[in-house]
């Protein structure tokens, strides 16, 4: 009996650790919307055309006038800023549409800002995550277990962008 009890506990722990993509999608939507409504993080990076918040866990790998490549560990993030668009613009969202079946394709509005979240399955356990606010978007490719954290960081960055 004791042997079966230990086996049951082990199986339960394994099942709890296995999160389905549906659960990840719900959690990602919730955290992105929460971060969007939380407002801007403090700006800590200035470029010639815009400023933004960069988490301390990220490094700048390359930068141009409107594009910056960031990494967190080995995971790259591409930040694009259309400096002609305001925070309530949907131009970047409209241009980001693909003829694909998204796992998540959500939009959010708050005050004078428009935001979006897109998650697309690329391969087994590989997902493209895109987050945008107005004329800003960030994109990364990540594994299922990193979608929520990646999307949260991306919204913090996108929400903080201030065009000069």
Task: Describe the protein's architecture and organization.
The structure is a single chain. The chain is 32% helix and 35% strand. By secondary structure, it is α+β, with helices and mostly antiparallel strands. The chain has one domain: Jelly Rolls. The strands form 2 sheets. It has a 7-stranded antiparallel β-sheet with strand order 3-4-5-9-8-7-6. Strands 1-2-10 form a 3-stranded antiparallel β-sheet. The longest helix is centred in the N-terminal third of the chain and has 18 residues, at 21-38. It is globular and about 40 Å long. Residues 4-16 have low confidence and may be disordered.
Helix/strand layout:
Blueprint: H1 2-17, H2 21-38, E1 45-46, E2 50-52, E3 59-63, E4 67-72, E5 75-81, H3 91-95, E6 104-110, E7 113-123, E8 126-133, E9 136-142, H4 147-160, E10 162-163
Antiparallel strand pairs: 1-2, 2-10, 3-4, 4-5, 5-9, 6-7, 7-8, 8-9
Helix pairs in contact: 2-4
Number of strands: 10
- Output the CATH topology: Jelly Rolls
Mean pLDDT: 90
The residue fraction in helices comes out at 25-40%
Order of helices and strands: HHEEEEEHEEEEHE
| Unreliable spans | 4-16
Largest sheet report: 7 strands, antiparallel
β-strand amount: 35-45%
Beginning-to-end CA distance, first to last residue = 69 Å
Main β-sheet, spatial strand arrangement: 3-4-5-9-8-7-6
Structural class: alpha+beta
CATH class: Mainly Beta
Sum up the structure in keywords:
Jelly Rolls; about 160 residues; single chain; 10 strands; alpha+beta; signal; three-stranded antiparallel β-sheet; Lipoprotein
